[in-house]
Amino acid sequence: MHIYCLPSEQQTRADTFYRAQRSPMRASEKAQVWVAEEQEIVAALCLQHVESALWLTSLLVAPEHRCQGLARQLMSVAFSAGAADVWLFCEPSLVAFYQRSGFSPTSQLPPALASRLARYQRSKPLSACYRPADQGANPAPLSR
């Protein structure tokens, strides 16, 4: 398994992966797109800079590669490269998953994210989570 940041000229590959998974997610041209790849992309994660932090805008692992620690490993590699605080919005049912990767639920958000969350919550329930830069998580080995 190879985990790396896609060069900007290859970010459409992440969109191809998202479409193949029937996901509405897309890589913003402002995002850093991290992928896990075997012969093809099997997981993708998008990060955007917001103020002095990072915002995790999407994380998706192909169903046949789930429950192997791949999402946690992908986050660990991407976050260690950025060495910044990370924020995310997720469905309430996913909060426990993100807590296992060092996130904590929060209601204190940077203003730019607080306004986005309020807008997004008009159409669906979302929780905000935060992970400080100094979390220092070591990636767990992948079980295969």
Describe this structure in words.
- The C terminus is likely disordered.
- The protein is built from 4 helices and 7 strands.
- The protein has 144 residues and is of the alpha+beta class.
- The longest helix has 13 residues.
- The chain has a single domain, classed as Aminopeptidase (3-Layer(aba) Sandwich).
- Strand 3 and strand 4 form a beta hairpin.
Key descriptive features of the protein:
seven-stranded mixed β-sheet; alpha+beta; disordered C terminus; 144 residues; globular; single chain; 26% helix
Proportion of helical residues? 25-40%
CATH topology: Aminopeptidase
The whole-number mean of residue pLDDT values reads 89
Cα-atom Rg, whole angstroms? 14 Å
Termini Cα gap: 10 Å
The CATH class, by name, is Alpha Beta
List low-pLDDT spans: 137-144
Order of neighbouring strands in the sheet with most strands: 1-2-3-4-5-7-6
Q: Which range does the strand content fall in?
A: 25-35%
**Content-based structural category:** alpha+beta
CATH architecture: 3-Layer(aba) Sandwich
Short description:
This protein is of the alpha+beta class and 144 residues long. The chain has helices spanning 12-20, 70-82, 95-99, 111-120, and strands at 2-5, 32-37, 41-50, 53-61, 86-90, 104-105, 127-131. It contains four helices and seven strands; from the N terminus they run βαβββαβαβαβ.
List the helices and strands and how they pair.
Blueprint: E1 2-5, H1 12-20, E2 32-37, E3 41-50, E4 53-61, H2 70-82, E5 86-90, H3 95-99, E6 104-105, H4 111-120, E7 127-131
Parallel strand pairs: 4-5
Antiparallel strand pairs: 1-2, 2-3, 3-4, 5-7, 6-7
